[in-house]
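#onboarding

Welcome to the new folks! Below is a worked example of what a typical request in this channel looks like: someone posts a single protein sequence, and someone else replies with the predicted structure as tokens. Don't worry about understanding the tokens yet, we'll cover that in week two.

Example request:
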Amino acid sequence: MRKLSLAAMALFVFLGFSGAAFAETQNVKVSGSIDAYSFYRSNYDLLNGNDAGSVPVGTATVPGSSHTGSAGQRSDADTFFHTITQVQVAADMTDNVSTVINLINQRDWNAEPLDSTGAPSTATQTGNEFDILLDLAYVQMKEIFYSPLTLTVGRQDLLFGRGFIIGWNPQDPQGLFEADEFTQIQSFDALRATLDFNPWTLDFVYSKLDENSPNPENDRDLYIAYLTYKFAEYNAVTDLYWTGDYDRATLASASGVIDNSTNTVGARVQFDPITQMTLGGEIAYQYGEYSSSLVSAATEKDRGAWAVDLFGEYRFDNAWKPMVGLEYVFLDGEEDLSGGNTSYGSWNGSFRGPIYGMIRDYMEVYYQTFQSSDQAAGQNQQHINVYGSMKPMEDLKLTASYFYFWATDDYHSTTTVPTSATLNDSIGNEIDLSAIYSYTEDVTFTFMADWFFPGDLFISPADDTATQFVSEVKVAF
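Example response:
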């Protein structure tokens, strides 16, 4: 009886504490999604007839034009399926406290891991294909200590303005799928303090991008100060900001700390002069120190680069809701990535959100071309983008974009004689089309078709058209 009484008392105390704890939770929302994709890709390396739909950056050997295998292996295309599954739990507690946890699995269907040459390795299917990863995990406290102050702590998404500087931090922690640009893990481990003095908003962010060992001299840290003012008229908004990306992790070595720092200062303005039109512009400047594997450890260049984004949109008063837009983007460039000059003038867009071409935007970022003198997209580049959309049916949206890309600074060839020859500045053209059909409020079908047509900058034989077709079905709950 004594043991029974003690057990009953322990159960009573446990239930009492549990009831008190759960009583603090006011509301819990569970949501999620399942995205299933199919991909067809051809000539992402811009080289026809070499058994490669796309070649990952860093691959030791780029497939050549000669063939030693059977004719059946000469497809020049990649076809594969991919699924992204997410479950999110959001809970509201008392005293303006809320939490969000998002779990995710991203995988190609039963794919084999790739070896250092970009070909399927002798290993079997990856064992962690079905692992669940942590995408979001943060707590948000509103009116903490001071009524205008909101504090957000943990793994969170960050998007400022239109994402021209901060909006995207793509990750594929397990290296399990080919189309890395489609990852849904874009979060930062960060502390964010938001002061809301309507119409002024001031954000301060600190993010730990790479810890390595606890030694602070091999870390990568990101700092953000972002000021926004919303005007009472014309749906107008203006931003002023500074960001600091201090990278001591990428090139950390026993010989000492190697700095690769990028400070960015900028301003943005956006407004609607009339109800149907939006105009906007953004300008930013980067300074700091530049180092890379191309530069000796003892050499650090002075960084100095500009970026400009100008855009306008017009929405027609029509049942089909047509919209047209025009955008110009300037990203500063550097013709000499490793030479003896003391300055470095190429733009660093590590966390830029907008996509400038579904194919071009990832060349030499995720996929390498056969031309060795090609530079990574997102730097040393200008483009004009004409885009538009319409809804011919209530449940159907059609979009189209045309890009023309050209180099900001001269490229120099390493594949022709003489090797110092200046290349044509025409990077190429891209057409991106999509159709989005909302089958129900929860189910969406999407089809995308993209073509990149290399310009005269690309030298034969690395000048073939790259193609992508993507189908997607998305269920959200």
